Request: fold
Amino acid sequence: MSTTPAGGAPVVELRRATIGYGDVAIVRDLDLTIRAGEAVAVLGSNGSGKTTLARGLLGLASLLDGEVQVLGARVGGLRDRGRVGYVPQRHSVSGAVPATVREVVGVGRLARLGLLRRLGRKDRAAVADAVAAVGLEDRMDDPVASLSGGQQRRVLVARALAAEPELLIMDEPTAGVDAANQQVLAGVLGRISASGTTLVVVTHETAPLADVLSRAVVVDHGRLAYDGPLAEAARHDEPGVHHHPPARERSGYRLDQPTVTTRPRGAAHEGH
Ligand SMILES: Nc1ncnc2c1ncn2[C@@H]1O[C@H](COP(=O)(O)OP(=O)(O)OP(=O)(O)O)[C@@H](O)[C@H]1O
Reply:
């Protein structure tokens, strides 16, 4: 289990941050500090704004108000892109370009070097290590398109690991990965967390990563509904449980977004 380093330098800092698309606010008024070495789960029901929050940290969603700083720089202003790794959601590697596992993961390493540089011996070793870390070393020279969806997700994890990022943001890394390989991934994330990398993991499945993630934030209707130990987060990770007043303004929410603010205890979990 990772501990929460109280004194680590802030790696992610949001101050009253409102993040969205175009001029539509999705995540609202969020205050959050994540310190070096922390491993934080981002939980919440479908459509609550978890991915938007993650994308906001990367400058892929718009900051509409407030402030977001990542590794001490304003969002989008970080010069060395390789310091922040990202595993996007529901994304498999495009089959249109016939690339091998080694090549796709090598591109991740280039983020660290700058696109005009070539991979040296140390870089090729980092690529091999990243592929081995996700248990795909025997598929190194296979076309990525020939891998299963779950294996392709592991390639994307390796691509992010290859840059040896200080902050690794992952959007549902265990989705579509079978139980045995979820264990493999949990081991990988545990090791990189132990080495000091800060982890932010959007997930619906906390069980496989329970030994890795110590802290959780729950996003509910774009607001922070809980911030504390992962073990206590489950009861807050439900649609309709509000620890802040519900947003008055509903524009920007999905039409299928549950709007109930109370639900019977023990009711089936919705939206998954
Ligand atoms: N590119 C986009 N442009 C406009 N609205 C978007 C865009 N991406 C997401 N949204 C909207 O933002 C809201 C939050 O979506 P988001 O993907 O952040 O939720 P989530 O909590 O990650 O959901 P899930 O658990 O289903 O992945 C939804 O209403 C969604 O329709």
In short: The longest strand covers residues 10-21.
